[in-house]
Every structure is written in C-alpha cells, then in structure tokens.
Specification:
This protein is mostly helical. It has one domain. Helix content is 63%, strand content 2%. It contains 8 helices and 2 strands, in the order H-E-E-H-H-H-H-H-H-H. It has a two-stranded antiparallel sheet with strand order 1-2. The N and C termini lie far apart (59 Å).
Length: 242
C-alpha cells in the first residue's frame, strides 16, 4: 500500500521515467538494424570471425552486458520500492556511485565517438547517462548519510560486471563495448580506472553526507584497502605514461 508523503511525487516520477527508459532501451536493442562497436544485428565478419546478433539470446546477452542497463534496472528497483514505502538506504549507497561512474565513463569514452550533440541522443541514452545524475542528487540529501565503511560497498558491482562480461563473450564472442577485454592489459586497466572513479564518487558522497559509524572500526583497519587503491593508481600512472 502506497502511503503518500512529501517524497512520493519524486519517487513516482523517477519510477515512471526509468520504466519508460528501460522499455525504450529494450526496443533499441531488439528492433535496431544498426551496428555498434560491440553489437552486430547485420551479419558479417567482424574481428576475423562471423558474427550475427539475430537470436534473442544474443540480444539479451548484449543488453545485459551493458553496464548502463544494469544501472537502469537497479535504479528502477530502488525508486519503485521507495514508492511502495520499502526504502533501503544501504542499497542506494551501493548504486549511487555506480550510476555516477557509468555517466562519467560514457561521456569520456563513448560519447565522443558518436560525433553528435547532446540533444541528438535518443531519449533512453540521454536519460540513462545524463538525467540519472539529477535523480541521484535528488535522493542523496534525503538519506541519513554515508559511513566511511560504507564507501567501499559499491565495489561489489565489479563482481557482477565482470561476470556478465564473461557471459557475453562466451555467448557472442564479443567483448563488452569492444573495450572491456579481459584477455588484455588495456581491459583490466579500464576496470581499475572504474574502481578509482567509483570509489571517488562514493567518498564524495561521504564528504557531502557524513554519518557517524556506530561500529567503532579503528581508522587503521582501512589501511590495507587504501593501500590497494594507491597501488592501482600507481599502476595506471605507469601504464598511461609509459
């Protein structure tokens, strides 16, 4: 039963707009005849092997290998559950940094290749990469806040991300975005960049909305985690400039 409160209109608009975006994104995949860098509805030889994404399994594997679509489903589940008065702030603290990271990576890596203005994007692409930023900040200031321990929870997404990437490659023989190659150093470098960007946003949210940690975990217990982040940063610096 929906109980009306001051946040209900926001949750309703967010749920409806996300649902429409999901439907349109599915339509773009299942009814598109346009090739992309990692999607080939037109039969041909790509990367030295025949590929034809005409089967429903191929289309589903491609669809769910896109991290943007993961984010849409996660956000829709969160805002729809809030509309039904089942709000989980822990879940939001996981998906908020993910959504921001996907937006940044899209505009940094993929958007320049499309050679089109922002207003020329399809509704689903525009909403899922740009408008979700406003959804995140529209909800951020209505939660209790982040603890330092919770800033690392978003990294669990990498497990599912790598898993669907492998499934997509095994089904279709194509790496996600034709960039996330898990058999190449560049692919793992991209994963490490994603880790740093995702944690940056998570820590930024902690800076905006800090919350006292009742677990009383000593700060020095976080040293191994932050040393790993520094190691990733040094490795990326070496790879990029050498």
């Amino acid at each position: 039963m929906i109980k009306i409160n001051e946040r209900t209109p926001f949750y309703f608009i967010a749920s409806v707009s996300l649902f429409i975006t999901i439907v349109l994104s599915l339509q773009d995949v299942f009814y598109s005849n346009k090739n992309f860098s990692d999607y080939y509805p037109n039969k041909g030889v790509y990367y030295g092997k025949p590929i034809h994404d005409n089967h429903i399994i191929d289309k589903l594997a491609y669809y769910f290998s896109q991290f943007t679509h993961h984010t849409l489903f996660l956000l829709f589940f969160y805002f729809f559950s809030c509309l039904l008065n089942y709000k989980s702030e822990k879940f939001f603290k996981i998906i908020a940094p993910i959504a921001m990271t996907i937006s940044v990576l899209y505009f940094y890596f993929l958007y320049p290749k499309q050679k089109q203005s922002l207003y020329q994007l399809t509704y689903s692409s525009f909403y899922s990469h740009f408008m979700i930023i406003f959804l995140i900040f529209g909800e951020l200031f209505y939660i209790d806040g982040f603890t330092l321990n919770e800033t690392s929870h978003c990294l669990i997404f990498l497990v599912t991300g790598i898993l669907v990437t492998l499934i997509n490659y095994m089904v279709r023989g194509v790496w996600t975005y034709n960039m996330l190659r898990l058999d190449d150093v560049k692919g793992w470098a991209l994963i490490n960049q994603t880790i740093l960007i995702m944690y940056f946003f998570s820590f930024m949210f902690y800076f905006f909305k800090p919350k006292k940690d009742d677990t009383n975990i000593p700060i020095w217990r976080f040293a191994p985690f932050y040393s790993q982040l520094l190691s990733i940063a040094f490795v990326l610096y070496y790879l990029i400039y050498n």
